[in-house]
Amino acid sequence: MLGLAKRLRARIFQASTSEVYGDPAIHPQPESYWGNVNPIGPRSCYDEGKRCAETLFFDYYRQHNLDIRVARIFNTYGPRMHPNDGRVVSNFIVQALKGEPITIYGEGQQTRSFCYVDDLIDGIVRFVDAEPGFAGPINLGNPSEFTIRELAQQVLDIVGEKSKLVFCPLPADDPTQRKPDIALAREKLGWEPRVKLEEGLKKTVSYFEDLLLEGE
Ligand code: UDP
Known about the structure:
Layout: H1 2-8, E1 12-17, H2 44-64, E2 68-73, E3 76-77, H3 88-97, E4 102-105, E5 111-113, E6 115-116, H4 117-129, E7 138-140, E8 145-147, H5 148-159, E9 165-168, H6 183-189, H7 197-214
Parallel strand pairs: 1-2, 2-7, 3-6, 4-9
Antiparallel strand pairs: 5-8
Helix pairs in contact: 3-5, 3-7, 5-7
The structure holds uridine-5'-diphosphate.
């Protein structure tokens, strides 16, 4: 894709990830942080794959002056997630709607910061439309941080279910904390997320309610 963009002199966007920070020792994570990634663990192919892609993007930027844009996307959720994609927001909502137990991995004290999809899209569009020469990398995510237990509680409150929590083994190398520093996005793009977790979860619950009804 980089070769194609070079030949066509096209602008090219990489949807990178907060996973480049691994299990971060610095909190919240600014773009200048190099990360703490296990190179041989079970999630390394994703983390290192995205890191390698960032490297290639910046090589093309330096060597060929290609107009690249690299955004590091933090946890994002919203309508149209796949019900079985295994991520925490979709899992918890589908479990709560079906009255099934909520699967907490580990103690649920690990944190994530969840960005509603419309906010993310707005950030991406602003970034790719920004002036040439601003390559990033730039963090796009919502800096409001929650433990996984807190997320479970919010989902249950919205759905109005009293599902019990079941505690499952924590996957290897699961980051213990994650929260974006979005000072750069604020400064360069005038961007910050607007949708609070509760509001975004309500919209997502309503999407999954309709989806599950259709499947009945
Ligand atoms: N998680 C959980 N229960 C689930 C799915 C995920 O407790 O049913 C936890 C998972 O261990 C992680 C967090 O929720 O700590 C976010 O997981 P997800 O896969 O959504 O995103 P990522 O780990 O890539 O941030």
